């Protein structure tokens, strides 16, 4: 059993957008929200990729504005604790087992889909694995827009038509940006108090995660980036119109790995394996027919105490993904691997860039699972 299972339905990323919509008087349904936020005329949610609760607490001196806000969290992000899963949970208001985006890469119709690039190898799969069909559930953003909320998504311009945006964050008006300046400008224009009606603005910033991967979380480069984000938050708070609820969260934390096993050069981890998905901290192992038990034993023997290694049925029964819809059950590995401590299963041949990162995330440690929900 993992040390920290996600708190689906009570205190996870899936509950954030419904709570914000309830706060601005436009609830998605009649149920009371799992997270209670103060009422407001409009709401802004800034998601900082890689902003973990423990990392922010450790480096509070670099982020005095953020550290001084009210924290309605910490929240858990879900499993795997990786960007595509978390952003889809945020946008849909659903746990991973319901929306079906289940890994950095995962099997869909027999293919290993890279959810960030919506690709298979170098091949764009947006036409053959149509994002709106891979994730067909209406998003919370779509439902809010259909109910009359002015919804705006502010993110990098290159993500406008990405598979991840189309699958998990569709709904409302997309405003593409390129830097902190136009991110701030578009967020602020989205809550202009001269425009009547409820308004929800979702803004996304990616650079903290990128620097954490490349240099390690807590590195000098990472800390300088955190300081810039803190300055952005301070300026937004000063400029937001009265009656606007400002919230900040993350999609996962991060750990610095110090020991790795290479699945591409370890024969014991290859026998009986048809496809290997996930990321270095959370692996989906898709096995050849009849090989699941042997693969389970081999991976447990190689990884030992560095991982929790279980069959699909056990992971589902224990609630790793929340309630799992029948249509997505085979997207979960026949064997599921969650790394413990600071270990990782890398792929130096098939994922050389990803394998080179000192900063990784995806598993159940509190450093990866917990994110803040800061409000002002």
From TrEMBL:
GO terms for molecular function: hydrolase activity. SUPFAM superfamilies: Alkaline phosphatase-like. InterPro entries: Alkaline_phosphatase_core_sf (IPR017850), Phosphodiest/P_Trfase (IPR002591). Pfam families: Phosphodiest. This is Type I phosphodiesterase / nucleotide pyrophosphatase.
């Amino acid at each position: 059993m993992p040390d920290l299972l996600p708190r689906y339905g009570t205190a996870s990323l899936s509950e954030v957008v419904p709570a914000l919509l309830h706060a601005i008087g436009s609830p998605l349904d009649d149920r009371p929200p799992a997270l209670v936020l103060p009422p407001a005329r409009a709401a802004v949610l800034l998601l900082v990729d890689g902003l973990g609760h423990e990392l922010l607490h450790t480096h509070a001196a670099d982020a005095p504005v953020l550290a001084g806000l009210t924290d309605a969290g910490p929240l858990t992000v879900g499993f795997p604790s990786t960007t595509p899963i978390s952003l889809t949970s945020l946008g849909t208001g659903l746990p991973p087992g319901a929306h079906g985006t289940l890994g950095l890469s995962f099997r869909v119709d027999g293919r290993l889909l890279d959810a960030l690039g919506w690709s298979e190898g170098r091949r764009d799969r947006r036409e053959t694995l149509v994002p709106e069909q891979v994730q067909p559930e209406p998003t919370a953003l779509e439902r809010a827009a259909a109910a009359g909320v002015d919804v705006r998504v502010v993110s990098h311009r290159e993500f406008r038509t990405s598979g991840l945006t189309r699958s998990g964050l569709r709904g409302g008006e997309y405003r593409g940006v390129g830097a902190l300046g136009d991110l701030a400008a578009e967020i602020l224009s989205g809550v202009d108090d001269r425009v009547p009606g409820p308004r929800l603005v979702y803004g996304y910033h990616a650079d903290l995660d990128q620097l954490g991967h490349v240099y390690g979380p807590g590195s000098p480069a990472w800390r300088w980036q955190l300081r810039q984000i803190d300055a952005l938050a301070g300026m937004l708070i000063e400029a937001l119109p009265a009656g606007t609820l400002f919230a900040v969260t993350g999609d996962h934390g991060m750990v610095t790995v110090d020991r790795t096993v290479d699945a591409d050069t370890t024969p014991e981890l290859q026998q009986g394996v048809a496809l290997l998905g996930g990321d270095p901290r959370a692996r989906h192992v898709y096995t050849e027919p009849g090989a699941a038990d042997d693969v389970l034993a081999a991976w447990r023997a190689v990884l030992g105490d560095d991982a929790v290694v279980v069959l699909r049925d056990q992971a589902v029964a224990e609630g790793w993904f929340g309630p799992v819809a029948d249509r997505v059950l085979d997207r979960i590995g026949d064997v599921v691997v969650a790394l413990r401590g600071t270990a990782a299963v890398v792929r130096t041949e098939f994922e050389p860039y990803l394998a080179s990162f000192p900063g990784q995330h995806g598993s159940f440690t509190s450093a990866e699972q917990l994110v803040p929900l800061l409000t002002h």
